[in-house]
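This part of the workshop introduces the protein records we will be handling. Backbone structure tokens are a discrete shorthand for how the chain folds in space. Once this layout is familiar, the rest of the handout is easier to follow. The record below serves as our worked example for the rest of this section.
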Amino acid sequence: MPTTAPAFADATASDSALRRFLHGLPGVDTVGLEARAASLGTRSIKTTAKAYAIDLAISMIDLTTLEGADTPGKIRALAAKAVNPDPTDRTTPRTAAVCVYPDMAATAAAALAGSGVKVASVATAFPAGRAALDVKLADVRDAVAAGADEIDMVIDRGAFLSGRYLKVYEEILAVKAECGSARLKVIFETGELSTYDNIRRASWLGMLAGADFIKTSTGKVGTNATPANTLLMLEAVRDFREQTGVQIGVKPAGGIRTSKDAIKFLVLVNETAGEDWLDNHWFRFGASSLLNDLLMQRQKLSTGRYSGPDYVTVD
């Protein structure tokens, strides 16, 4: 079975081998992990660094709408905001991507053509992932054919939690093959994995199967991205690169709404994985409302005035 990490080929040779490998990973020190995440979140940021961090965070956003009420008009408006977040200040960075359902990928692709902003599409029966593999793969093919540059897939949490790791691994491989040149983000839904040990195992499983990004959550459950679970995933991609030479991105999603939150996550990236990940090719925020607060804080830094929420468009 092919993998991005030939050094770990033996680990993925069978279900029992994969189980031994994943359960042989070091256990997570819950107290230590949460204490480090909390400590890094208290770092003070100077004004000049804050301005840089806000622009960096804007450039890392996958501006997202994943609602049953999404319309082509809403997607075009979101695409316009991604390309030109602040019409009064053309120096504002563009967002990294617009993330939509597969049936809206063509609309997003047309609206973003030539802008450099990527089209990301969720797939594989998002958000629950409860569908047959051929249905999931058709979902991916449709999104890629419609112009998606990136695919955000959900793993089968039921299979993972029941220890059927090879099934999850092979499903990621199959989805990766359907992506073609599109980059693959693998969503674990960390709020449903229950333990930090499971999040570490899922991170390694996704990376072994060829994920280009590992992603915390769908944003559709009660617990989404947290500093602690993102820190754990950053440690995983750091360690994976040290052992394989392969760099994998990280995308926390859901619940990140303020500039203060975003900057805390950027500190986590810098202090854990390192500067190589401080780029939107390797780190993203899955968010809908975060951009609004970043724009308000950016306005305050540049003018000294806080414009309030009516300064920016409401998504």
Q: What stands out?
A: Confidence is low (pLDDT under 50) at residues 310-315. The chain has 13 helices and eight strands. The two ends are 43 Å apart (CA to CA). The CA atoms of residues 10 and 17 lie 7 Å apart.
